[in-house]
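Let us practice reading a record.
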Amino acid sequence: MILSIETATTNCSVALSKEGETIALIEDYDKGYSHAERLHAYIDQILSEGNIDKSQLDAIAVSKGPGSYTGLRIGVSTAKGLAYALEKPLISVSTLESLSRQVNIEGGYIIPMLDARRMEVYSAVFNADFSLARDIKAEVLEENSFQEYLEKEKVYFIGNGVEKTKTIITHPNAVFIDAKLPSANEMGSIAYKKYKVNNFEDVAYFEPYYLKDFVAIKSKK
């Protein structure tokens, strides 16, 4: 039994999975970055729905990023606190990998992308079997972005970076999947594979994968 926590974007998402299969899911895309108020309530609610106590969990999984600096801090801090208090292993899951698993294709590429302000996105490239074809990076979108993949096969773009991407990339092999955010629903299967091989994080030293340094901007008010 693994509890999965996803807070990398505006979607506050919590799932409970058994042997990699989701058995309960609570999430809310529409309330903005209010994870601090909702996350613990969602955890209590999902454990109640699953009719299990925290002590019965076998591991805690958390979306490690990239994504919102504040969102990741809240999710990781909560996951580390639970893992430490319950003496359970902590498992990290790539935010972009779990997002890619919302796409089911037989061929081509999957490019999950998260908005990183202006014309920049965090992205990675996955094959149809979810193996990594290109590692995660932050990049500024241009007309020829991802050209090497678009020239070969269909490319499926997913995530909240899609809206601005489709205004720039017009290649016929580009397929845009709108209005999708990372969810804890896809984390269970990834976390379960890591659990079986003891691929755990050090609770004391684990930090989110921000990809870029946090920059504080002075308020215009």
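A brief commentary: The first helix runs from residue 35 to 49.
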